[in-house]
Design brief:
The protein is an alpha/beta fold. Helix 2 runs parallel beside helix 5. The longest helix is centred in the middle third of the chain and has 14 residues.
């Protein structure tokens, strides 16, 4: 029978079961700083549906970090210990990998920020499915590379067929980086690892929240010239935040980019990628190479 994910710790440099409840963010000891949660991974308190159809085992929940709301162990609301300031250096609109990576950089430099996203949870499925060695080298500077690359296997070989005809088969491209090549790691996994690190710094993503409007006030006396009106899509509550900078990391349909009149340059294709974690029967000639 399936069961929920157990709490784990990276305290000794590798993943292992944790004891007690030092990861419980609702405890007062976490809020006042007497407990250091920096290495701990919390299990979700509520398992949310991730599919409209059950699988053969009758399970349609993903028992891991996509169930998290705001990067905490509650999928419902911000915890009491989180106090969002009205004035910050930077407001980040969008909590995908790019927005979260900006947040990770800022928190290590002591720059104050708030990060918002209209989605209720981290990405459950889809979009990007691997990370490059250079990406992991960047995370290595922040002490996060090990957490990231151990989540996904390294792509050793690639085979491409079209209509039964082999187009390519050989080793996947490698580099002289310590991380060698592509690691299969979905965007949702990347987001959850980033959220886990932000939580260590007592920073959370404000979910179900959009930037309704923003304007810039000029004048030498304005220390925080950007006035940003945000709205909680669930409660309808609006709030004005003052900041020095506004970062638009809200994707291809970015409302920030559109208001600034910046065009979206690039192309789109009708190519779709999929990842399967399964055992299958096939006459595919190179199936043995992939487990």
């Amino acid at each position: 029978m399936a069961r929920a994910v157990e709490p784990t710790t990276y305290k000794n440099g590798f993943k292992q079961p944790s004891t007690g409840e030092p990861w419980n963010t609702e405890k007062k000891d976490f809020a006042n700083g007497t407990i250091d949660p920096s290495h701990y991974v919390t299990p979700p308190s509520v398992e949310l549906l991730t599919s409209t159809k059950h699988n053969s085992l009758g399970v349609s929940v993903q028992r891991c970090w996509p169930t998290l709301y705001d990067g905490t162990n509650s999928p419902h609301e911000l915890p009491d210990w989180y106090k969002a300031p009205k004035e910050v250096d930077v407001v980040i609109c969008g909590a995908g990998p790019s927005g979260l990576e900006v947040a990770l950089s800022l928190v290590r430099q002591g720059v104050t920020f708030r990060i918002l996203d209209q989605a209720e949870t981290p990405l459950i499925a889809g979009r990007a499915d691997s990370v490059q060695p250079r990406f992991l080298e960047t995370l290595h500077q922040w002490g996060m590379a090990e957490e990231m690359h151990e989540e996904g296997p390294l792509i050793e070989r690639t085979a491409i067929y079209k209509n039964g005809k082999k187009l390519f088969f050989g080793r996947s491209h490698q580099s002289d980086s310590r991380y060698r090549g592509l690691h299969v790691l979905t965007q949702g996994q990347v987001e959850r690892i980033f959220l886990r690190d932000l939580l260590r710094h007592k920073q959370l993503v404000e979910r179900s929240t959009i930037v309704k409007d923003f304007n810039i006030k000029s004048g030498d006396s304005e220390t925080h010239p950007v006035a940003i009106t945000i709205k909680n899509a669930k409660t309808g509550v609006e709030e004005v935040i003052r900041s020095k900078f506004l970062v638009g990391s809200d994707g291809g349909a970015s409302a920030i980019r559109k208001k600034l009149g910046i065009p979206f340059e690039g192309t789109s294709t009708d190519i779709y990628w999929g990842i399967m974690d399964c055992i299958y029967e096939s006459d595919y000639p190179h199936a043995w190479m992939f487990g």
